[in-house]
Amino acid sequence: MLNEFKSFIAKGNVMDMAVGIIIGAAFTAIVTSLVGDMLMPVVGMAMSGIDFSNLFIPLDGAEYATLAAAEEAGAAVVKYGVFINAVINFLIVAFVVFLLVKQVNKLKKAEEEAPAVTPADIKLLTEIRDSLKKK
Questions:
Q1: Contact by Cβ (8 Å): 64, 58
Q2: Number of CB atoms found within 10 A of residue 70's CB
């Protein structure tokens, strides 16, 4: 059973998937920072200074100045601002992944369309080269 597991792990697809997950996690941290630290302040400012992360509805009927105050008081809250941030984050990540996949597909298509060099082509090119050297 251990040998089967080693064989499974050593397969190319599993290793590719592991590398993809690791790179994806690092990429997610970058995009999260991009959205939270750079884009959301601009969006909030454009919308009259709204800070989405502080938008909430307390379920106990009381009023709280901030989300932190509501959480400190132990109130159950609906954090719809955090949800808005997550949706925006998802849309940006999805768009960036779309652009990356589009570029990879473009490169693959160009590679597939490139004419393959055959041994006959190499022989012909070698003969042309030798013929030109003789002149």
A1: yes
A2: 21
The Cα 59–Cα 67 span in angstroms is: 12
Please check whether residue 59 is in contact with residue 78, taking contact to mean a CB–CB distance below 8 angstroms.
yes
CATH number at residue 88: 1.10.1200.120
Measuring CA to CA, which residue among 86, 68, 81 is closest to residue 32? 86
- When divided into structural domains, the chain yields a total of 1
The answer to whether the CB of 40 falls within 8 A of the CB of 53 is yes
pTM for this entry: 0.57
- 68-87 pLDDT per residue, tens: 999 999 999 999 998 988 88
Contact 53, 20 (CB under 8 A): no
Number of other residues whose CB lies within 10 A of the CB of residue 44: 15
